[in-house]
Structure formats: C-alpha cells, structure tokens
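Moderator note: this is an archived Q&A kept for reference. The question asked for a predicted structure of one protein chain; the sequence and the answer are reproduced below.
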Amino acid sequence: MTNILIVEDERNICEVIKAYLEKEGYNVYTAEDGVEALEIFNQKEIHLIILDLMLPKLSGQEVCTRIRAKSHVPILMLTARVEDDDKIHGLSIGADDYVTKPFSPRVLVSRVKALFRRSYRDSSPLAEKLIFNEGDLEIDMDKMLVKKQGKEIHLTANEFKVLSTLISNPGQVFSREHLIQSAFGHEYEAFDRTVDSYIKNLRQKIEDNSKKPSYILTVYGVGYKFGGTR
C-alpha cells in the first residue's frame, strides 16, 4: 500500500485532496499542524508528503527541513505565494515540487503521480561507490550517500539527482533545461533560477571553495558539467 501524508490545516481542502487520492487507490494520513505531521511521519511508513507552507505550531518550512535531515521522501509543497523567490526557497530547503493555491484537485493528483514516477524510478545508471580527487569526495549511488573528506554530508533528493546526473555523464555539458529534463524528467516544471539554486547549494556542500569550484563547473554561455577526477 502506498501511503501519502497530507499536512493541511484547512479541513475542507484536506478532505477534498484526501477523497481524490483515495479514489486513485492511495492510503492517506492527514495532519492539521506541523507537530502532528512529524509524529505521524515518525510512526508510519510514508511514501510522499503533501505539505502546506502556512501551518500552526510548526511551519511547513520547518517540517520540510526536519524531514529532509533524515529522509529523501518526496515532498509536494502547497503555497498561496506566487513569487518566484518563495518557490525557489521551498525547493532549496528540500521540497521536490510545489502547487500554488487555489488549485484543481485533478491537477494536484496528476502532480502527485508525476512526482512518484520521478522519485521512485531507477534513474541512476551507476550502482557503485565512486571516489573522486584522491578520496576528497565519495559518493555511494545505491545508498544516496555523499562524503566530503570522510564526513557524511546531507543532500536533498533533488540535489542528489542533479549531482548524480552530472556524474553519470562525465565531461558532458548540460544546459539548464537539459539538466532539468535529465535529472527529473520532462514532466518537471522548473525555471533557470531553480537549477542555479541547486547548483549553489551543491557547491556550498561539496566544494572546498564554492567561488572556485572543482566539481560543479560552469561552462559560460552553455551550462554546467562535472569536473571531478577518479
């Protein structure tokens, strides 16, 4: 059984989403605040989370951050904010996709299905531990683990997808659009600043100097490529 957790404090919206998802055969848990959401997540096996940003007791951003600290579960964020900066912030703290309120329940269900396809497909052709720059960077593609100088570092699911896409195609230069399609599939809706946000976060986590990167290289006027050596 596929379990989805809806975290939404507006009961009418929550019940509508729940009804549509159950009609599609999903098992649905609901929470009305951030604290309850974390309690359910810690007790149940959750395969996807639909998370409202504006929640009582604990904000959606904080819930997302805490879950991302220990899990790669797909998170679809609900937001009433339409500004690009808000969407980028949600993606940068670990959300995999977002839907802006008001929304059609049918559209939401289609986004849920697309997120499941992206998140649970085997998109990594390299099933092994990879070591770069004489042990400076270690990546276990199977376990989605990354170590920098022997210390494990945390990447969001989307950051790992971007990194693994670049690593899986050594020397290939990806435009922003090509990188999005290769990492997430053609159904994923994003824009250039989203990719730049992922790249910025990756550089801060795996580079010695994010201003002078040796792994995530910029090819000016084109896009990005991986520069690590094995």
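Archived answer notes: The first strand starts at residue 3 and ends at 7.
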